[in-house]
Amino acid sequence: MKAFLIDSSRFTVESIDIHPGNVPDQLYKHIGCDRFDAVYLEHGDTLYVDDEGLLKPQHHFILIDGHPQPYAGKGVLLGSTPAGNNADAKATLEDLVDKLTYMERLIGPVVSLRKASMPSRCHMDHLAKVLARLEAAFAG
User: Fold this and answer.
1) DSSP structural state of residue 84
2) What pTM was estimated for this model as a whole?
3) Which residues, at least 6 apart from 41, have a Cβ–Cβ distance to it below 8 Å?
4) Which of 1, 21, 45, 126 is most buried, by the most CB atoms less than 10 A from its CB?
């Protein structure tokens, strides 16, 4: 199945193949975790992330337009069927990149933000302001 691996520490998104045989083991391997969680996105895609990622010392996060919280570390985007089975990702690479921002925790509450479409450019912000904007965008 066509999927995308998002690596917030390398500021990359790459196309990968997930074989239908044993999806959970492949997700554990790609994400680098012992437990994963599913984040349901628009158009039937699902982002799989480390379920315990926010409990670990973490410096790199994924922000997705329209979602109220950061997701720690790596993520794998797969599609899903109406019955809840895995399928090819419906989003294109361009669609996904347009909705992604990488956040890196620097010193204390200071973070750098990089749009996935231009990862070489970053700007600094206060973590509390970033989280407030995410929550406001989700609520509005």
Assistant:
1) S
2) 0.92
3) 47, 64, 67, 77, 91
4) 45
